Amino acid sequence: MVMxxxxxxxxxxxxxxxxxxxxxxxxxxxxxAATSRAGALGSLGVGAxxxxxxxxxxxxxxxxxxxxxxxxxxxxxxAVSNVAKEAAWIDQLRPLFAEFxxxxxxxxxxxxxxxxxxxxxxxxxxxxxxxxxxxxxxxPRQQWIDELRHxxxxxxxxxxxxxxxxxxxxxxxxxxxxxxxxxxGHRGMFDCDAPDDRIGTLALTRLxxxxxEIPVIAAGGxxxxxxxxxxxxxxxxxxxxxxxxxxxDESAADEGYRAALTSVASRHTVMTRAISGRPARSLANRFxxxxxxxxxxxxxxxxxxxxxxxxxxxxxxxxxxxxxxxQWAGQGAPLSRPMPTAQMVATLAEExxxxxxxxxxx
Length: 362
What we know:
alpha/beta, globular, 11 strands, 13% strand, 38% helix, TIM Barrel, 3-stranded antiparallel sheet, 8-stranded parallel sheet
């Protein structure tokens, strides 16, 4: 049965049409709990941890606040190693490691296991039954989708175009996250090697709202209540904000990331594969600059490329250089406002009310 658009927020159990994005490595249990306590949807990205790590994060969040929780999984195709390409990439980055008197890794490994083959993570979700589970980079097997829905879990999935939105609808997913080209972090494309139409958030939100029977959550470049109001006016039932929360007190972003986000550096973002192996929007920094001219077909597959990317960031950070980090940020980054998470949610709600009135029943 297709969920009505008006019932999504009621089923989740939140008052505000605001989702804090599940940013793996940045969102924390404290952030998720504070968001849900304030009436929005708090989220955790667990694509970078195993089932045991995810269980600990879920427990920490629910201990702080027993309200609705959103858990996000990565559903990328498991990487196939290309030894020659990976060796060439290690050599390509070797001079950057030499700046810090460190050798690069001798080989690359698959640091993140895709949810599509993670039985332990699936069993954890069945046990914990979070209010919401979402999928990024594609969809898991249909049997898992059906079993999660049978447990009463609301399912979301990211679409960057109409074809992906239609596939999500056909799979029985409850709602779609319309991720525009402006969005920070990884593009949710099902196939990152396919042509990308680079549809912006507003156009994509309207396109999906007009063509799909399931609710749409707008994501990408939305930083304040005025942006939330715009998304709602175009047919979204909620907006998902990521970059807006990166500078919050409860964020796991390091000092270099925070400093860049709240400086003139925030005015420049780039879409790059070099950091992780998949297209992702980052603040322009030393890593993106040093690899800007590298053809995408020379970069190893995600997440094997991320293995050396993280090693380079660690080498630089140990010497006080943060410019090789994965400083994911959307095009709205200059609108970033450091504050506690609860204050951010309250501020967004106030701005939304001023710009569009009460959209609770949109």
